[in-house]
Amino acid sequence: MTSRRLIHFQPFLLISVFCFCSLLNSQKINAGDDGFKSIFDGKTLKNWDGDPRFWSVKEGAITGTTTKENPTKGNTFIIWEGGKPADFELKLQYKIINGNSGIQYRSFSAPGADKWRVGGYQGDFEAGDTYSGILYGERFRGILARRGEKTVIGKNHKPKVVGSVGDTNEIQKKIKKEDWNDYHIIARGNHFIHKINGVTTVDVTDNDVEQRRADGIIALQLHAGPPMVVQFRDIKLKEFPKANKRSSTEGAKKKVVLIAGKKSHGYGSHEHRAGCILLADALNNSGLGIEATVVTAGWPQDSSVLQVQIRLSSTVMAVVGILIMSIWKS
Fold first, then answer.
1. Beta partners for 48?
2. What is the separation, in whole angstroms, between the first and last Cα of the chain?
3. pLDDT band at 242 (very low <50, low <70, confident <90, very high)
């Protein structure tokens, strides 16, 4: 009797998981551009300040250009004068021909030959194949995450690789050469995510209380070196209230633990973890600010893993509860 119920129950479980995944993806798509405001009018450099020898508007894009006859001595930036965002999402399109560039955020004015020098967090990109999507600290601790890495920056000011968000070479295949690409930066609390063309390139938590930055300027980079052209368009910003953090190590994400039951069937007759894994993947990619973890083989021996924060709607909580109980019973 029990086995017969389980056989009929599994399709329901899988359907529930996939429906829930679809619901989350639907919420992400529908909410995609809500609250975003344009910070570039597509015609002028109003509210932007950069060296006029290098910056202009061409083809509806902020354009930085260096030539053999007109090089820049050191990296130079065009700075948005509209504020110093703290928690936000920034979306734009970029195109680069030769050289290296980047998007500064939570940044600061730095000393130099003129007023257009900047340091801070940078969403890097280039014409080459290595650095697009990394988190670089311009005059600010150096490389904080290479492409494909999930890192935590500690009190020693250095990043530690704690996981992966993808293979760097596979990510590079999604980036178009000398053509327009979508760049998306998410900064919530001390947690940062970069995406290019919808693909996550890095995931960084900055626990370096001494040096991390809570807010700062946004700027666009024109790199010193060989002649290059970089363009930016469709620049949109969505700001959030600052995250309320209870400790220096607590990121902006809320944590959810999914517990898979112990094995109760022979090999090949039943998958014990699939529902939890699918649900965790959906939550982690939902854009809801959730970090889901799967515990296998029953109740965790280390109870500290259950010290989580869950802040979901009652509907989502009900579905999650049904799924967890269903997987547990199986």
1. 80
2. 14
3. confident
Rounded to whole angstroms, how far apart are CA atoms 150 and 14? 29
3-state DSSP assignment of residue 3: helix
What is the DSSP code string of 129-145?
SSSTT-EEEETTTEEEE
Within-domain flag for 247: no
Report which secondary-structure segment, H or E, holds 60. none
The pLDDT of residue 290 is 80
Structure tokens given for 95? 């195109």
Summarize pLDDT for 6-41 with one digit per residue, the tens: 334 344 444 444 444 444 444 443 444 579 999 999
Q: Are residues 179 and 286 in the same domain?
A: no
307 in a domain, yes or no? yes
**Rounded Cα gap, residues 309 and 249, in angstroms:** 14
Q: Which residue type occupies 81?
A: E
**CB under 8 Å to 318, separation ≥6 — which residues?**
none
Closest by CA position to 88, among listed 63, 119, 121: 121
**Collapsing DSSP states into helix, strand and coil, what is residue 194?**
strand
- β-bridge partners, 55: 64
Alpha-carbon span 158 to 253, nearest angstrom: 22
Domain's final residue, options 181, 207, 240: 240
Residues 228/293, Cβ–Cβ less than 8 Å: no
Integer Cα distance of 130 and 134 in angstroms: 9
Q: Do 204 and 301 have their domain in common?
A: no
Whether residues 58 and 199 fall in one domain: yes
Residue 14 confidence (pLDDT): 45
Cα–Cα distance measured from residue 103 to residue 99, given in angstroms and rounded to the nearest whole number:
14
Asked if 257 and 219 touch (Cβ cutoff 8 Å), the reply is: no
- What does the DSSP 8-state code read for residue 241? P
- Domain range enclosing 224: 37-240
Asked if 286 and 270 sit in the same domain, the reply is yes
Look at the alpha carbons of 56, 97, 200, 194 in this order and tell me if their dihedral is positive or negative. Answer: negative
Whole-model pTM: value is 0.67
